[in-house]
Design brief:
mainly alpha
């Protein structure tokens, strides 16, 4: 068999167009991140698009699908022009430099660890796409399309790029102690999107009729379909963040799955006990809460930690949703902040508590050493949460006000909102869906 293997390699090396892997390139890692990249893009289009599209009223479904699709396009071009460079090129502790503007110096041979740099950039782009797309759920059914485009573009540059650099690009949060534990985007994706959603919902104001008029989802079948796509895609989101085809990726996928299942059942059970029946909307929202909360911790905890994180996510995010809507009367239309924002905060903090080399329940530490290590890491996690929350809130508020000036108000008028954005903004109808 060894002789046959050697002969095969020699034959391959002689074939035109089939060069042997360059030094440093790992074909297994590359294949896995190619797959993960497709999975994460699959989360936005079609996963998130269908999930959100089914939750709004039928007169606004196309507007939501259009927003997610357009964000994918505009973020992709901005990533090429400057945002990748601001995130990952050498700069200072707060923002990257301009070395990679328009992917300058990037070729097929450029390497990032064991991957082609172009693949690393493409994988990271899919994270940059889904983050502003998540915010769409906060202002669904009432924001101008032009305002949404400008806000998403400005926000990507002014919020996403700096926070990404702080955590993953060599910035100050990644350099504190052992570094902020954010394996796949608790701060970079979920806290930034969740906080921006909260600020946007407050600034733009509630939908007309909220909270007295019922606004039920128009197509739960579509929402559940999108939820299933999100669950599958999240394996690439978290598993791919190992940036290698190894045990870290496998464990990240396992704990992601456990947390999603636990979050789903926790949310469903609360609704069942409170209202007498388990709801489909509840179980899929609990899934998203479990997935969002495990995201920052997925590379640092084991199955035991994941189970606890998922259960806590389902319970806490459920009550956060009720509080935002019923107590504070904030119309975060599709519950972006209580699910993603609160989940991201919980997961980032619990990554410092349940991090472990084995089961995610402090194994590997003596008691005294364990408490000391946990306290130190938890302080780093808390600083990361507070800094990300405060920075995102302030800059998002400023950007919304700026966009309002540039577009003569960020909200559609009363008649357009009543008629629905599909017709008034796009002259198309999704009613036949």
């Amino acid at each position: 068999m060894k002789i046959l293997h050697t002969i095969g390699l020699l034959l391959l090396s002689c074939m035109p167009g089939l060069a042997m892997a360059s030094e440093g390139l790992d074909s297994g890692d590359t294949a896995w991140i190619l797959t993960s990249t497709a999975l994460v893009l699959f989360m936005t289009i079609p996963g998130l698009s269908l999930f959100y599209g089914g939750l709004v009223r039928s007169k606004n479904i196309l507007s939501v699908l259009m927003q997610c699709f357009a964000i994918t396009c505009i973020v992709s071009l901005l990533w090429l022009i400057v945002v990748y460079s601001l995130c990952f090129s050498d700069g200072n502790a707060f923002i990257g430099g301009l070395d990679r503007v328009f992917f300058a110096g990037m070729t097929k041979e450029s390497m990032s660890g064991t991957l082609p740099e172009v693949l690393f950039s493409l994988f990271q782009l899919t994270f940059a796409i889904i983050t502003p797309a998540l915010i769409v759920g906060a202002f669904a059914e009432r924001m101008k399309f032009s305002s949404m485009l400008l806000f998403s573009a400005f926000w990507l540059i002014a919020v996403y790029a700096p926070v990404c650099h702080w955590v993953w690009g060599g910035g100050w949060l990644g350099s504190m102690g052992l570094g902020l534990y954010d394996f796949a985007g608790g701060t970079v994706v979920h806290i930034t999107a969740g906080v921006a959603a909260l600020v946007a919902a407050i600034v733009i104001g509630p939908r007309r009729g909220f909270p007295t008029t019922a606004m039920p989802p128009h197509n739960m079948t579509m929402t559940v379909t999108g939820a299933g796509m999100l669950w599958v895609g999240w394996f690439g989101f978290n598993g791919g963040s190992a940036v290698a085809a190894n045990g870290d990726a496998a464990m990240a996928m396992m704990v992601t799955h456990i947390s999603a299942a636990a979050g789903s059942l926790a949310w469903m059970t609360i609704e069942w006990l409170k209202h007498g029946k388990p709801s489909v909307l509840g179980i899929v929202t609990g899934m998203v809460a479990g997935l969002g909360t495990i995201t920052p911790a997925s590379g640092f905890v084991g199955p035991g930690g994941a189970l606890l994180i998922g259960l806590v996510a389902g319970v806490v995010c459920y009550y956060a949703t009720q509080m935002i809507k019923n107590k504070f009367k904030i119309d975060d239309s599709l519950d972006v902040f209580p699910v993603h924002g609160v989940g991201g905060i919980l997961g980032t903090l619990m990554a410092g508590i349940f991090s472990s080399t084995e089961l995610g329940v402090f194994s590997g530490y003596g008691f005294a050493d364990g408490i000391s290590t946990i306290a130190g890491q938890l302080s780093v996690q808390a600083i990361g949460v507070v800094a990300t929350f405060a920075y995102t809130a302030v800059v998002t508020f400023v950007l919304l006000k700026l966009v309002g000036v540039l577009t003569n108000g960020i909200r559609v008028d009363k008649d357009d909102e009543t008629q629905g954005l599909d017709i008034t903004l796009h002259e198309e109808s999704g009613y036949n869906l």
